[in-house]
Amino acid sequence: MQNNKPLFDMNRIARLRAMPTGKMPSKALLIGSLLLSTAVQATTLRIDNEGEPGSLDPQQSNNLWDSRIQRELFDRLVDYSAEGELVPGLAERWEVSDDGLTWTFHLRDAQWSDGQPITADDAVYSLRRLLSPAMANQNANLYYPIVNARAINTGKLAPEQLGVKELDAHTLQIRLEQPTPWFLQTMAMSEAAPLPRHYIEANTQWINPGETVVSGPFRLAEWASQSKVVLQKNPRFYAADDVAIDRAVFYPIDNSGAALRRFRAGDLDISYSSVPSTRFDWVREHLGKSLRSGPLNAEYFYMFNLRHDSPLADKRVREALNLAVRRNVITGQILGMGQQPSYWLVPHATAGDVRSRMAFADMPMEERMARAQKLMQQAGYGPDHPLSLTLRYNTSEDHKKIAIAIAAMWKPLGVQVKMVNSEAAVHYASIQQGDFQVARYGMVATVNDPFDFLGSYASGGSAARSSGYHSDRYDELIEQGNRTLEPQQRAEVLGQAQQLLLDDYALLPIYDYVTHHLVSPQVRGWQSNAMDIHPLRWVSLAPES
Amino acid sequence: MLTYTAKRLAMAIPTLLIVITVSFFLMRVAPGGPFDGERQLPPEIEHNLQAAYHLDEPLPMQYLRYMGNLLQGDFGPSFKYKDFSVTQLILQGFPVSLELGGLAIGLALIIGLPLGVIAALRRNSTVDYMVMGVALGGIAVPNFVIAPILALVFGVLLAWLPAGGWNGGALPNLVLPVIALAIQQIAYIARMMRASMIEILGSHFIRTARAKGLSERQVIWRHALRPAMLPVISYLGPAIAGIITGSVVIEQIFGLPGIGRYFVQGALNRDYTLVMGTVVFYGVLIVLMNLVVDLLYSALDPQIRYDD
């Protein structure tokens, strides 16, 4: 765990400030004022947060940019380190029973920003609130492993029947319906943050700048919608001494070109907007010291519609389409931003060591194409009977370039591609309704676990519902993997599940995502990580060397 | 005048009603819903969301509910920006757009009117060609091209002004967006003023004024300028409404918290209540702007009397 001490001795600055200027030597005055101005600038961090927060109530939103702010305001029982690893948060320790069904969290002595103690009762209240149907939380299903959670979230039981209990003011017990290896990950999500029961029950509109009661390293000082969110250090945070940043300003810049200009102009210390691919080479050359790149827990793939009336119901066609795609051309020549060609669904950045891959991954391209053409012939397609396919993608220059390239790669197989571009809402609605043949898709992990990806293709999962994929064996393996607590054994089971999915050519993986953020060289303690989570608690600012 | 104003306002009610109704149903038939995103929601969660926003009710019921709330001045909660009501968002965004738009129109008038007059007075001269050439350029180059160039040159390379951000409406933050917004309007106003001035200068009453021995300056200031401005005045109504509603691109590029951003983001997110709120607001604004322009017209042209 990293400990960042404040870079400036504020007491010394205060003493300098208090000294009558008449008594102060002119040189000392100059040094003092320089020190003062540097100190004021140095502890304010200016962040491009991509978008305007939908809500700062941790249970009311599911955007990345919402949770970036929520995490600073409301600490969770389990926290993230700068490296993106789980570390103790409001709970200083926890244990799980041997059967994996009972989790006990021991809360540290901590206070809300109004001085009230943070208790296990706040955590119980918060989880009940999260699962109440009226809250309509979009990630509530991740908490369904808790006893009665699904029934409560569907309105069949009262929230009081949730399997969470306050054993004493500092001890929280959570009972699960089945062992869930990724459960601890969900407790680090912003949704799971204990909330100030005493304050929320007294205020219907409780997110009010200057008043909101928080538990995290920062308080909400100002929120000018679509302009900025200003956070101020919370002196009552349990580790306030370790927090080096006094003030953080989040700007909702939802235009990557504008974000780049503002970063170049020195208006920002951190930019979370992705670097535009057209400007990437320039950024690498001119802002190399600021460019922070790293793998991300996210996968870019094409989803196939496998229903009976689709030509893609034929596995030979799906395999042929997979064989013909030169992923290294897409990642190397079309995108050129360090993405990793993918022959799997679970990105390699994901924890859990699930490393299965498509069988042809190492086959030379000539052999791949020969096999692909043979498979297409066997499926009844050829020059006289070309396969017509509709390929859907959502509006983005990169998606368009990839779609054009893949259509060209499929052409030697006699595949005629009709491309359909639509904005995101229409695109995803079409996928959800099964109204597509091949569709561009992106999956970003909410928890760092292979289940987050593989579960979507199991019965009832979102990808299974959209694509029509079904395999009893696959469902069994996922179910088994979801109950297995021993990591090595679990990796094997989930690896088998993924292999089955890949052998079925149920999808067309293209690449593992990467992150590219602009971070000023003055920012210390900020690290690229697979979850792309960067708590400000570990960050400090230092003058550029 | 009062009766005329009251009549015009009364006539606006059915217009607005039609706009609201058509917008309401158009929004609902558009493909894609407010909760369709990259992460597909399980049916249970989707059901909770639909119930929370009354989207599980039949469409006519939803319409009646919306109209009922609207009559009480309630635009409802935003689907996306949940910590604010739509009314709060509009009240926060409008002053920004108004300030931007007002300054841009003001700048356009201050620069565009004299340019138009000069071009008209020096008709077919080098000055005229220069002014009209620049005006043509101003119209031809869209502001989504001009704005990033301004930000790059003055914000990044020269570092004279902020490259973006609102900063509570501080003057340095306003300069580039206002210029970017005003450039097209300057061009339109200059061209309009030139054409109008040429027409007026060729009319009988100007010839009479000149025959009476008035100096050219007196002819222009006393007799030509006011009638020549009438077409510009009538253009101002839609221009002001247009510049406030059309500053969307500029607000996006410079990251300004105006109402245009809400409109665009509301539409992209299928945030039904936010889109409806901005549509109603824009509708009222356009009706009011047109009314103000008509009243201004009568003040400037004695031949027009609305009470008759």
Automatic annotation (TrEMBL), chain B:
As for subcellular location, the record says:
Cell membrane
Keywords (A to Z) from UniProt: Cell membrane, Membrane, Transmembrane, Transmembrane helix, Transport
Any single GO BP term: transmembrane transport
Q: Does the keyword Transmembrane helix apply?
A: yes
Q: What Gene3D superfamilies does its record include?
A: MetI-like
TM annotation in the entry:
9-30, 100-121, 133-158, 170-190, 232-254, 274-297
Q: How does it sit in the membrane?
A: Multi-pass membrane protein
UniProt GO cellular component terms: plasma membrane
Which family does the similarity line name? Belongs to the binding-protein-dependent transport system permease family. OppBC subfamily.
Q: What is this protein called?
A: Oligopeptide ABC transporter permease OppB
Q: Can you name the source organism?
A: Kushneria phosphatilytica
User: What lineage is this protein's organism placed in?
Assistant: Bacteria, Pseudomonadati, Pseudomonadota, Gammaproteobacteria, Oceanospirillales
